[in-house]
Amino acid sequence: MPEILSLRGEPAFFADVRAIVREPDAGPQAEGVLPLALWRARAAGGAVPAAVWLAPGDDLGALVPHLRVLQLVALELPKAADGRAYSLAALLRTRHGYRGELRAIGDVAIDQLHYLRRVGFDSAQLPPARTNAATLATVRAILRTFDDSYQASTDQPLPLFRRRQLGEAVR
Amino acid sequence: MPDTTPPRAAIYAYDAVDQRLVDQRVAEYRSQLARFLAGELSEDEFRPLRLRNGLYIQRQAPMLRVAIPYGVLSAVQLRMLARIAREYDRGYGHFTTRQNLQFNWPKLEDTADILALLASVQMHAIQTSGNCVRNITTDEYAGLAPDEEVDPRPIAEILRQWSTFHPEFTYLPRKFKIAINGAAEDRAATAFHDIGLRLWRDAAGALRVRVSVGGGMGRTPMLGAVVREDLEWQHLLTYTEAILRVYNLHGRRDNIYKARIKILVRALGAAEFARQVEEEWTALRDGPSTLIEEEFERVAAYFRLPDESPRVAAPARPIAEDERLAFARWRTRCVHAQRGGHFAVVLSLKATGVAPGDASDTQMDAVAGFAERYGRSEIRVSHEQNLVVPHVAEASLPALWRDARRAGLATPNLGLITDIIACPGGDFCSLANAKSLPIAAAIQQRFDDLDYQHDIGELNLNISGCINSCGHHHAGHIGILGVDKDGSEWYQVSIGGADGSALSNSRAAIGRIIGPSFAAGEVPDVVEALIATYLQAREPGERFVDAVERLGIAPFKRAVYEERQRDALEANADA
Asked: What is the pTM (predicted TM-score) of this model?
């Protein structure tokens, strides 16, 4: 069963042939979504790989000059409670203008998907136990739950109070 | 003819979006609860979801913590809390040191229905637990106090909205507590919060904010460090966002006891922490989240009374001779003059034998009635766990006092030794090392004599059942902390804490432990020995906290441990 959930439009599972490369010392020929250290080494060699993943403590700085080339940045949540990926995502979208795919990997709980989408994630890799039709139905309901927000985020640059002022928000 | 229509409370009222958000939150939780009960979510998966709706699993039953934003309630809302206590709980609730209300006995299966009832009166339990931004607290006299420079309520409401469901900060390293003060006296203990905000006006009358970060209680109590003295008010959200982002990225996640922002501030040093915040803020500053006058005005307008005239209460019979002393005592202790000449009446939830901060459903309904009949349908919750009815005319005081007495809410002990702050402790809370409520009860009984209490004078005695310090023992003039020694319940006593209020001489300080811990039965004797030492040594007009400041802890420590040794020797001699 394809295990990447798209969060844009009508949520659906899709498959990605690019696997997450986890071993930090995976060989120089490793292909897929590369860990940051390996990605940096390749990028330094001149050929910037299009897919990279970051652990929560990793520094975004190395990516910034290459964001136009990157097609996929995956941010890891080693535990669902580790919220650093949310700030990294927000920074990638707002501070650095990243437009490629942003994917959440690791311990992704479907009840976090609304927040993940708001801070700029396009997709999430779910654990195998959750990649099924029943979960998809629940996920679609989850992502329909809230139709507005108070504060600005990557999905809505204007906080509610500005939209109130513009007469837009209150229906 | 007296006006009997209850006035509409001058508090923030939800518009369509505010209401939809809480309704949608209830729907979200209902679905999560159903999935948990059906086995589709594990305990571990359900835990963060229920915590972000205030639901703990405790020793005896689930506990639901309802948010009372910045401690402000309407009579309608308080009546709903009474109804929930009656229909879903055991007929009472507990007001906390963060101005929230806890129900100790709801059934898990009923919690979505309870949240729905709360939503129907514009209330919720959103983010009252979990590693996210919690209820924002302020002073129970916000908008009322003569020493107030800036009413903190509009800013508190604006911050509440900004923090609600903030997607980036839903999984912080640890809980995050913000307190706001707008008065000369700090009655909100801002120095003990993750972010403490002091609102003030500059010479041109512009609203500014002093921002302190990294205060807190717990295992490593600390006072906050000022990172900005004079932030212009419109930058408050972007600046707070910068603080939260630095914390979210760099706060420790390896050890839950080292995960609060105070640890990060201490590790970096306040100057470096402030520099990192400023650097982040540079990119956020002047962006769309910069506050605008229109929003401040929109929110502030809700808190303005339509007119300042007090309610005309039905004429009451005058205070009789046999009531005179009791009424005078109560008036002195529990009635505070507001700006403009009306009164804020404190209803003590600290009667002897009642768990501090607890109120029955009958009492909650009674207080709602007092607010409607004698006030402006508005109630405040103090972080000392008492209730306040503001906007009461002087002429109404005798009638209100009699009604309050009948309801057991007129104990004239505000600010005295029996006005104890205590957490629910080991009787209820699975985190506790020891029980707090029997200690509070024993102290209240020992000092039950009101004359004695008045002679002792104003004193903050705070009790926590464990180092999580929900009873704020670090800030108590006398602090009592439950500890687990060899598997049994012992109590550590500290003195000289201060919460920053006028009663504490506007000082914030962490109390110092006087020595080895005591068994439960010894605690009232220990407190009595501390008081006796104070009474013997005090100078005219000097309160307990002042005497500790002047004398240091040595004489108090000596008195307590020498007496303890004497008692032990006597016991041995008798044996």
From this structure: 0.94
